[in-house]
Design brief:
Elements: H1 2-55, E1 73-76, E2 83-84, E3 91-92, E4 95-98, E5 104-105, H2 110-116, E6 209-211, E7 236-238, E8 244-245, H3 269-277, H4 282-286, E9 297-301, H5 309-320, E10 326-328, H6 334-338, E11 350-355, H7 357-372, E12 381-386, H8 392-396, H9 409-418, E13 420-433, E14 442-446, E15 449-452, H10 454-468, H11 476-493, H12 499-502, E16 503-507, E17 510-512, E18 519-523, E19 527-528, E20 532-533, E21 553-558, H13 561-568, E22 575-580, E23 583-587, E24 592-596, E25 599-603, E26 606-620, H14 630-634
Parallel strand pairs: 9-10, 9-11, 11-12
Antiparallel strand pairs: 1-4, 2-3, 4-5, 6-7, 7-8, 13-14, 13-26, 15-18, 15-24, 16-17, 16-23, 18-21, 19-20, 21-22, 23-26, 24-25
Bound molecules: zinc ion (4 copies).
Length: 638
C-alpha cells in the first residue's frame, strides 16, 4: 500500500515544480503566435475594407467601365527597399503603395494623398497643361502659381483646366507643393522659381511625373546619369512612358509623352475621352490619337489563381498600361470587362487572360455571347498567361504549362503584341437524360476534353476533397499530390469496370465496336491531364494528324487508372478509337462519372452528343512552331 501511494505522490511532487513552468512556456509559445496572427489578420481585413470604401469600388462607381480616378492602394508591412513618403517626404518603412501610379505613402498620410495627389488617369480631356506633379516636396507646379493641375476626367470639360493658369494649387493635378507638406520647398535645392516645362502642343499628352522612389536601375532620359541616388524624395518617373529624369533635367525633355516602348499596347487616356464622347462616329476623329499599328491589350486576371502571383502581376500591368485595361475577374465578369472593346477599333484588341484553363473558358464563353449580341466586329484575339493548376489549353497553344515568374510583365506584353493569330475549335456538349426529360438537356461548352470513366472519377474525388477542405489546395504541388493519391486509390477499386458493356459509341453516325475498356476520352487539344500528349502517344506507329482547329475530335479509350498512369509516364499508348466531327455516346443503364474541361459530375443513363459550336480567335507566342497546327503546316506550300 505504501509503495502504491508513494507513486502518485512522487509524480505530484514532480508536477508543481517543473510542470507549471513548462505548461506556462508551452502555452506562451503556442498561444502568443496564434493571437498575434489573429490580431494581424483582423487589422489587415479592416484596412482592406477601408481601402475598398475609399477607392469607390462599391456601387455608385463613376463609370460603368470602372473608370475611377482614385489610387489603388496596396498595403505592405515592409517596403522592400528604402522608400520615402510621397506626401510628407519622410522615410517610410511600412505603408501603402499605389499599384497604378507607384506613389508610396505612410498609413497616416494616405487619406490626404488620396485627396491631393492625382493618380494615373484612365480618361483625360485633350488640351491639358504640362501634366500634374505628384510628390509633395518641391513640385514645381504646386505653390508657385505656375500652371496648376488639370482635371482630366470627362466631366472637366474640353478645356480640361480646373484651376486655370496661375491659380496656385487650384486643380487636382498640383496638390502638393508647399501646401502643408513639411519640409516644403526648402528641401529641394536648385528648384527655386523653376516654372516647369511648357505645355505640349494641343492634342498631345503631357508626361505624368511621380516624384521619388525610382526603380534601382535607371538613367536620366536627358543626361544619361543615374537618378534617385540621394537619400531623399527626389527626381521623377513618368508613370506612362516610364522615363526617369533628374529634377533639374525635366525642362530639357520634350514635353509630350509618347507612352514609351509599349505604346502599341496602351490605350491613351485622351483616346478614351474622345471615344466616350463621340461614340457615334469614332474611327475618323479618333485615328489621329491612335498610335501606329495600334493593338491595345486588355488584361483579364483571376486574382485568386497562382499563389497570389496574379495580384502582383496585375499591379505591374496597371503600372505599364492604362489602369482601365487591367480587370480583376473577382470583381467583374468577363462580358462586362469586354465591353471596353466596343470603344476601340474593330479587330485590333488582344485580350491576355491570366489564369487556368477554366478562366480561359469563361472568357471565351463571354466572347461567344458578344457574337450573339451582334458585336462581331469587336471580337478580340485571346492570349494566355498560364496561372493555376490545369493549363493544357495554354500548353497546346504554346504559352507553356505554367508561369513561374521568370518573365517580366513588359516581356509578356511584347510577346502578346508580336504573337500570331490562330483559331481554336470550341464544342457544345449536350447531355440528354433518357428519352424524355422535363428539365431539358444540360449544355456545356468544351475547349479541351470530355471524358467518362477513371479520369473523370479522379477529377470528381479531387473536386469533392477540395470542396471539403479548400485550405489544402493553395499550392500547385499539393494539388498534384492529392490527384495522384486518388489515381492510385482507384487502381485498387476499379469503379468503372466493364464500360464497354454499359455504353454505345457513335463517330459521325457510325457505331464503333469497343474493346474491354474502363474509360473514354474525347479530345480537342493535344495535351491532356497536365502535360501529356495523349493522341500522339509513344512508339513508332504515327497516328493520323490531329489539330485543335480542323473541326475534328480525337476519341481514345483507356483500360483503367493504372493504364492512365502508364500513359502519363509514356509506358503505354491509349486505344485510338478514331476521329470525328460529331461524337455520340449512349450510357445505357448505370451511373458513371463524367467531366467536361475538368468540371466533373455523376451522370445516370443519358445520351451525350458533342458537336462544333464556334471557332475562337486565339494568339500563339511569336516563333512558336506548333507541330499539331494544320494551318501553319500547310502555309509554306501556298
Ligand atoms: Zn508621410
Ligand atoms: Zn495612384
Ligand atoms: Zn511620359
Ligand atoms: Zn539628368
Amino acid at each position: 500500500m505504501e509503495e502504491g501511494a508513494a507513486g502518485p505522490q512522487g509524480e505530484a511532487g514532480l508536477w508543481p515544480g517543473v510542470g507549471a513552468g513548462l505548461l506556462l512556456w508551452t502555452a506562451a509559445a503556442v498561444l502568443l503566435p496564434v493571437l498575434l496572427t489573429c490580431w494581424c489578420s483582423v487589422r489587415r481585413a479592416r484596412r482592406e475594407e477601408a481601402l475598398r470604401r475609399g477607392r469607390g469600388l462599391g456601387p455608385g462607381s463613376r463609370h460603368s467601365l470602372g473608370l475611377g480616378s482614385g489610387h489603388t492602394w496596396l498595403y505592405t508591412d515592409l517596403f522592400p527597399r528604402p522608400t520615402y513618403c510621397s506626401l510628407c517626404g519622410q522615410a517610410a518603412l511600412l505603408g501603402s503603395s499605389c499599384l497604378s501610379c507607384g506613389l508610396c505613402v505612410h498609413e497616416a498620410c494616405q487619406a490626404r494623398a488620396q485627396r491631393r495627389l492625382r493618380c494615373k488617369e484612365s480618361v483625360q480631356a485633350p488640351g491639358g497643361g504640362p501634366g500634374g506633379w505628384e510628390g509633395g516636396l518641391g513640385a514645381p507646379g504646386g505653390g508657385l502659381g505656375a500652371p496648376g493641375g488639370w482635371e482630366g476626367a470627362p466631366g472637366g470639360g474640353p478645356g480640361g483646366w480646373e484651376g486655370g493658369l496661375g491659380a496656385p494649387g487650384g486643380g487636382l493635378g498640383a496638390p502638393g507643393g508647399g501646401l502643408g507638406a513639411p519640409g516644403g520647398w526648402e528641401g529641394a535645392p536648385g528648384l527655386q522659381a523653376d516654372p516647369g516645362p511648357l505645355p505640349p502642343a494641343p492634342g498631345l499628352q503631357p508626361h505624368h511625373w511621380v516624384r521619388g522612389n525610382l526603380p534601382i536601375c535607371n538613367s536620366c532620359a536627358a543626361c544619361g546619369l543615374q537618378c534617385g541616388s540621394q537619400p531623399r524624395l527626389c527626381d521623377c518617373r513618368c508613370c506612362w512612358c516610364q522615363r526617369v529624369a533628374h529634377d533639374g533635367c525635366l525642362s530639357l525633355l520634350p514635353t509630350a509623352c509618347d507612352l514609351g516602348p509599349l505604346r502599341r499596347a496602351i490605350i491613351p487616356p485622351r483616346y478614351l475621352y474622345t471615344a466616350i464622347r463621340q461614340r457615334a462616329s469614332p474611327a475618323s476623329q479618333l485615328s489621329s490619337i491612335c498610335p501606329e499599328n495600334w493593338c491595345p491589350i486588355l488584361v483579364l486576371a483571376n486574382a485568386r489563381s497562382g499563389n497570389n502571383m496574379a495580384q502582383s502581376l496585375m499591379g505591374e500591368f496597371r503600372s505599364i498600361l492604362n489602369p482601365v485595361q487591367v480587370v480583376d475577374l473577382g470583381c467583374s465578369t468577363p462580358l462586362k470587362a469586354l465591353q471596353l472593346c466596343t470603344l476601340l477599333p474593330s479587330h485590333a484588341v488582344r485580350v491576355l487572360v491570366c489564369g487556368g484553363d477554366g478562366t480561359v473558358g469563361w472568357v471565351l464563353d463571354a466572347i461567344d455571347e458578344m457574337k450573339y449580341k451582334g458585336q462581331d466586329q469587336y471580337i478580340p484575339h485571346v492570349a494566355i498567361l498560364p496561372l493555376g493548376t490545369g493549363n493544357d489549353l495554354s500548353n497546346t497553344l504554346g504559352w507553356g504549362p505554367g508561369y513561374t515568374g521568370d518573365v517580366t510583365a513588359e516581356a509578356i506584353l511584347q510577346k502578346v503584341l508580336d504573337g500570331d493569330p490562330m483559331k481554336l475549335d470550341r464544342w457544345r456538349v449536350r447531355v440528354t437524360k433518357g428519352f424524355y426529360s422535363f428539365h431539358g438537356p444540360k449544355i456545356f461548352s468544351m475547349n479541351n476534353y470530355f471524358s467518362i470513366g477513371p479520369d473523370a472519377l479522379m477529377a470528381l474525388n479531387f473536386h469533392e476533397c477540395r470542396e471539403q477542405s479548400p485550405f489544402l489546395f493553395s499550392n500547385r504541388i499539393i494539388n498534384k499530390a492529392v490527384y495522384f493519391f486518388y489515381g492510385t486509390r482507384d487502381c485498387l477499386i476499379q469503379a468503372c469496370k466493364d464500360l464497354d458493356q454499359k455504353i454505345e459509341l457513335e463517330l459521325d453516325g457510325e457505331r464503333i465496336s469497343l474493346p474491354k475498356l474502363e474509360g473514354i476520352i474525347v479530345l480537342n487539344i493535344a495535351y491532356w491531364g497536365g502535360g501529356c500528349r495523349l493522341w500522339e502517344g509513344t512508339g513508332d506507329i504515327s497516328p493520323p494528324p490531329a489539330s485543335h482547329n480542323d473541326g475534328l475530335l480525337e476519341v481514345v479509350g483507356v483500360y483503367g487508372s493504372f493504364h492512365c498512369a502508364q500513359i502519363h509516364v509514356k509506358l503505354a499508348n491509349p486505344v485510338r478509337l478514331g476521329q470525328a466531327h460529331t461524337v455520340r455516346l449512349i450510357l445505357k443503364n448505370s451511373a458513371m462519372p463524367m467531366q467536361v474541361d475538368g468540371e466533373p459530375w455523376v451522370q445516370g443513363p443519358c445520351t451525350v452528343v458533342i458537336t462544333q459550336k464556334t471557332q475562337a480567335l486565339m494568339i500563339s507566342p511569336p516563333g512558336e512552331q506548333l507541330d499539331d497546327d494544320v494551318s501553319l503546316a500547310t502555309q509554306p506550300d501556298t
